[in-house]
Specification:
30 helices, 1% strand
């Protein structure tokens, strides 16, 4: 506790000095160059990136073909599996014949696809999951969203397969070669913190409008977790297992294929789950550059303010996300069973055989009865008007209360903090970050983080960056003020823990765009709407890390405190919270990471931060502007991540938890 008090006092001292200088420096004109970054020192990074990108597309040559022809050829190859799956699941295959007519081969029947997913639940021996899968897919079919859902599925399947393969390979290379790990670690940090909108323009310019560009963008976002999970799982393999493989004479490949990979399979499945969830998070953004599907339905509905229809498609994305999340988690937790009795071919592959016959039979019957391919319009529903009426009712009857809450937060929280961030000299921020890094882990961390912040000033995006910091600061503060107490309560009560876990697991499966729909419906557009959406999206890690951190405090500590006569509240305040503080701070870090990823998306509802710069770059086809703004967001995230992780690791060492 004395150590914690020491940290608190020194932190308070530096923050106090920071505030005093922030107020005093702007009052003296001699310090103008410290208040606003001099134009002469700003670097034309955005212009140079745009120039290089356009040169690659328009002039770069590789001899027998140009660079553009190479990237478009790669795009055409990547399009093939997506187009095939799209035809198989959604649109069918159309062939032109010599007479000028065309032949249409119908896609798989919606009945057979629902049957296959239900059978997966049966195979996993989870009846409730099978029922939920059936209800989810019937919702999609009955609300006339089947074709859009299958188009989304076709893009998801390809992205997940490629992400798993390449992510696993990169994880293996990182495990085997330290130099590759040193290169890939910051690369993955950059890929995961870089806003997706930032590389939409380069993807469009290189690969053209279509599934290939959407696939590349999705892989950049969704693949790093697979590589990280694979590498970390290989690092944690028991040394006795490795020694056993060496004793029986395994070669390097045999050791990897027959010993290490089977050992880490359950952990790798968690990486697969992350790839699936992140891929689903990308469906709406990917639809902007040609992916289509449910994401396109939501995107067009938002643009045309058809909120009810957008909400329908958003629910469909949510249901698909929950279905794939639950199935992948169930497969990850499944353990192999060994049976000594002999079983015949049919018994061994009965689920595959039955599914195959259902596919063939429903497809053949569908040649005569179109019901098996498309539900008639008189059997489909639309709840768009229903949701629109609810929103109209809320806006008519509760407009005053909503405006009162919005104005309160804007006047007393958002506006003052925004003014403070925009008026504070850039030099103070750079210096403050250097001092914090220096205090936590020495001069190297201080220089590293302050250089990242200085880079933002050099790009000319300082004002936009400060608006980003102001918004994310407010959102992270509110998310943790709400989330940490919930996590504490959940850690003390098993019933609350179970209920909370179900809720936050569901929240974590919701794609980021889904949060925008109800927020826009009720609060219109602006910074307040962005704040609500970000807090809802980012609150999950604050709850989860607090709950898990407190629950992982060693029982021996609690037993000693109980024996000494401490009450439950004293144990929480004096033992559990101090010991779990590093984990809670990691939750704060994850809250910020998720908040930044969501904040870029909320540029669609009227924010004026770096996220808006990436959207402007997309509309003006200016890759340099988008990438530079994205780099600034990434550097904000990396700076905070490095500082919090360094502090957390130091704190764990001091507490003897490592």
């Amino acid at each position: 506790m004395n150590l914690l008090k020491k940290y608190s006092q020194s932190t308070f001292f530096f923050i106090l000095i920071f505030f005093i200088l922030s107020i005093l420096i702007p009052k003296f004109s001699i310090f103008n160059y410290l208040i606003e970054f001099p134009n002469n020192f700003k670097l034309p990074i955005a212009k140079n990136i745009t120039f290089i990108t356009k040169w690659l597309i328009e002039d770069a040559s590789l001899g027998i073909f140009s660079f553009k022809e190479l990237t478009r050829a790669i795009g055409s190859i990547l399009d093939i599996p997506s187009i095939f799956l799209k035809g198989l699941l959604a649109t069918g295959f159309k062939f032109e014949i010599a007479s000028g007519d065309s032949i249409l081969i119908q896609p798989l029947s919606w009945i057979s696809i629902i049957f296959i997913f239900v059978m997966i639940g049966v195979w996993l021996k989870d009846v409730s999951l099978s029922i939920f899968v059936a209800i989810s897919f019937f919702y999609v079919a009955l609300f006339d969203l089947w074709q859009s859902t299958m188009i989304t599925f076709s893009s998801i399947i390809i992205a997940v397969i490629i992400g798993i393969i390449f992510g696993t390979l990169l994880g293996i290379f990182s495990f085997k070669f330290n130099i590759i790990n040193r290169i890939l670690t910051p690369t993955f940090d950059f890929m995961q913190t870089m806003p997706v909108f930032a590389y939409l323009v380069p993807a469009l310019m290189l690969f053209g409008y279509g599934p290939a560009a959407a696939l590349i963008v999705t892989l950049i976002y969704a693949m790093p977790p697979m590589a990280r999970v694979t590498k970390n799982a290989l690092d944690q393999v028991n040394s006795e297992i490795v020694e056993l493989g060496q004793m029986v004479g395994c070669s390097t490949f045999q050791m990897l294929y027959k010993v290490l990979l089977p050992t880490i399979k359950p952990r790798v499945m968690l990486g697969v789950n992350q790839v699936i969830m992140l891929t689903l998070n990308m469906v709406i953004i990917a639809s902007m550059i040609g992916a289509g599907g449910l994401g396109y339905d939501v995107w067009t509905s938002l643009k045309q303010l058809r909120i009810g229809q957008g909400f329908e498609a958003g629910i469909a994305i949510t249901l698909v996300a929950i279905v794939l999340d639950r199935l992948s988690q169930k497969i990850a937790s499944r353990r192999p069973t060994y049976e000594h009795k002999e079983i015949n071919f049919f018994q061994k592959y009965k689920f595959f055989i039955v599914s195959f016959f259902v596919i063939i039979i429903t497809w053949l019957i569908g040649q005569r009865y179109s019901f098996f391919f498309t539900l008639p319009e008189n059997l489909t529903f639309s709840s768009g008007r229903f949701w629109d009426r609810i929103i109209d009712y809320i806006n008519i009857n509760y407009h005053g209360s909503i405006s009162l809450v919005r104005n309160f937060f804007f006047i007393y929280l958002l506006k003052p903090f925004k003014f403070f961030m925009l008026s504070t000299p850039w030099f103070l921020f750079v210096f403050l970050v250097f001092i914090i890094g220096l205090k936590i882990k020495g001069i190297y961390l201080g220089l590293q983080c302050s250089i990242l912040v200085l880079f933002i000033a050099l790009t000319g995006f300082w004002e936009k960056a400060m608006i980003t910091v102001y918004l994310i600061g407010v959102c992270v503060f509110l998310a943790n003020i709400i989330g940490i107490p919930i996590g504490i309560i959940a850690s003390q009560n098993d019933r609350v823990h179970k209920i909370t876990k179900v809720i936050i697991d569901t929240f974590q499966t919701l794609p980021a765009f889904v949060y925008l729909i109800p927020v826009i419906m009720i609060f219109s557009v602006g910074d307040f709407s962005a704040m609500i959406a970000v807090v809802l999206y980012a609150i999950v890690p604050a709850i989860r890390y607090t709950d898990n951190g407190i629950r992982q405090v060693p029982e021996s500590y609690i037993d000693v405190a109980t024996t000494a006569g401490c009450t439950k509240f004293q144990i929480l305040r004096r033992i559990q919270l101090p010991l779990s503080l590093p984990d809670i701070m990691l939750g704060v870090n994850q809250t910020l990471m998720m908040g930044l990823s969501m904040l870029v998306i909320t540029a669609l509802v009227g924010t004026r931060d770096l996220g808006q710069e990436t959207l402007i770059a997309l509309s003006k086809v200016d890759p340099g502007r988008g990438i530079t703004a994205g780099i600034c967001v990434a550097f904000i995230a990396i700076t905070v991540d490095r500082l919090i992780n360094a502090w957390s690791n130091n704190r764990k060492l001091e507490l003897g938890l490592n």
